[in-house]
Structure formats: C-alpha cells, structure tokens
Write a structure and sequence with these properties.
The protein is an all-alpha fold. The protein is built from 13 helices and no strands.
Amino acid sequence: MASQSQVGAEDRWTRSRVMATIEPYLFIAPFFIVFGIFGIAALAYTGWVSLHDWNPIAIDNPFVGLDNYTRLMEDPRFWNSVWNTFTIWLLSTIPQLALALFLAHVLNEALLRWKTGFRVTMLLPNITSVVAVGIIFTSLFGRDFGLINYFLGLVGIEPIAWEAGRLSSHVAVATMVNWRWTGYNTLILLAAMQAIPYVLYESAQLDGAGRWRQFLNVTVPSIRNTIVFVVIVSTIGGMQIFTEPLIFGGQNGVTGGASRQYQTVALYLYEQGFRNFEFGYAATIAWVLFGIILIFSVVNLLFTRRIASSD
C-alpha cells in the first residue's frame, strides 16, 4: 500500500504536469480574450447591423435582410471607391516592396558603415504622426506653391493640379503611403536577410555567382515567406487606407475630391456612417471590404506558394 508521502508526491507531479500543459495557454489567453471582445464580437455585431436599416437616433431599426448588400452591388460610388483603393494600393505596394528589398539588401552589406544610424532613420517615417505627414505632403503637392511643381517647372513641365486629377491624386496619396511604410518593411526584410546562413553565399561565390545572381538565387528565395508576410500586411493596410486621402483632400477629403476621384472604400464607409448616418449601409460596406481583403490575402498566399512549389 502506497504511503501518504508517495501519494502526495504523485499528486504534486500530476499538478505540475497539468500546469506545464496549460501555462502556455494562460499566457496567450489575454490576447485572445481581447481579440474576441473587440474583434470577433465586433465583427459579428457589424454583420447584424448590416442586415438592418440602422440609424443610431431612431427608435426602430427595421430588419431589411440582404437589401443593403443588393443596394451596394448596384452603387456606382462604391465601385468607384473600390477602383480608387485598388489603384492606390498598386501604386504604393509594388514600388514600396521593390524599394524595401533594395534598401534591406544595402543595409545588409558587411562593409556598410553607420548601420545602426541608417536603421533608426528607416523607422522615423513610421513613428511620425500620419496627420503631420499628410499636411506636409499636401503642401509639397500644392498646385501653385508646391515644391514638387517647382522642381517640375525647372525642367519645363507645367504645374500639375495633383488633387484635381484621378491618376495624379492617386500618385500623390501613394507617395505618402510609400514614404511612411517603406522603412518599416525594409527592417522586416533586413531581419530576414540577416538570418540567412552565410555559407549559402560562400557556395554561390564558389559557383561563380556575382552579387546580383546571389541576390536573385540566394537572398530572395530564402526570405520568400517574409516577402509574403510583407505583401499580405501591405494589402490589408492598403485596402483600408483612410487618413492620407482624408487629409490630402482638405474640405473635400471625405468625398475624395469634388469628383470622388480618390475616395477610397474606407472614406466611403465613413461618409455613409458618420455623415449620412446610414449605419446599416456602412456596416455592409465594412463586411464587403473585409471580404475583399480576405480574397486578396488568399490570392497572394496561393500565388506565392505556387511560385515556391515550382522552384
């Protein structure tokens, strides 16, 4: 018959095993609790609101089913905002990724001096207030007194009304996004590059590969997962762009200019919800935007996996 001390030792050993099993989940539980309250619960509530003709000051908010979604699919202003968002996303994500890859490769060079200073500089645009960035770039892209038009005038180019045109306004807004996020993505890619074993580069050198060939055949394939992460995060952020076009447009910021030439989906959502007080319709826009982001993220993931499997 087991003694009392043996039974106590077995109980303590069992409790320690149980605690060792559940402790990791206890450490990460606060995140999932907060995410559940402010993420999943909010998403579900938004879906419920989208099925109603919801007005925050009305007594009755009648159930309308999928009428808001049907209306949205036939709304030309919504599709205009989708096209504007997609164009600005293309003009910002592709140059941003290319420039971030180049800067990360330069910062990864062994002979580069003052590396720490350059890396700190890369983060400065990201920690700068986005409102301040928007005000400064709005001044830079001013038609009559903007610095951009001043330099264009030095080479004989007429002043451009950046805010008035569709393509020009998209370029201006995308430039703000690129300036703010390129350094952040550079540091993420740099961290991935520094984890690449140097022996791979030595093997490539022995095979006669130059620096450009090493970059294409060693660096890029080794950080493919990080590139996928950067693209997906940039897609999520680009599809929700709000502050830059809002500040760029000034008084017409919410509508994205007089002709809605740069109104994004997030701005259209804000206009419907907080100007027109159609919260049910705004919630519908939010859910459709969520679906668009999800589709883009899945397509990016499948595309990059196909490339990886073909190597």
